[in-house]
Amino acid sequence: MLRIIITSLLLVSSIFWGVYPPGDGSPHYLILNYFLPNSNPPNKIIHIILGCLLYVLALLVSHEII
Question: Distance between CA 27 and CA 7 in Å, rounded?
Fold first, then answer.
């Protein structure tokens, strides 16, 4: 049951980080700006890489590799 919850959270995170467009008004930039004030918004490559990594991690957790 815990594996299903973790996999679901990782998949939702991968969609959130991988698909949502980056910009000045995006939630990603607001979160980053909260922790690192006066920082530049991350570019699209960072979002795509992070989304893919979270997806692969969810895949590994769901197949009991991790």
Answer: 22
Domain that residue 29 falls in: 2-62
Q: Which two tokens stand for residue 52?
A: 């893919």
In angstroms and rounded to an integer, the radius of gyration of the C-alpha atoms of the chain is 14
How far lies 51's CA from each of 1, 9, 12, in Å? 24, 12, 10
Is the pLDDT assigned to residue 39 strictly greater than 80? no
Q: Sign (positive/negative) of CA torsion 56, 62, 65, 66?
A: positive
Helix axes 2-19, 44-62, angle to 10 degrees: 160
**Residue 31: φ, ψ to 5°:** -65, -45
User: Whole-model pTM?
Assistant: 0.74
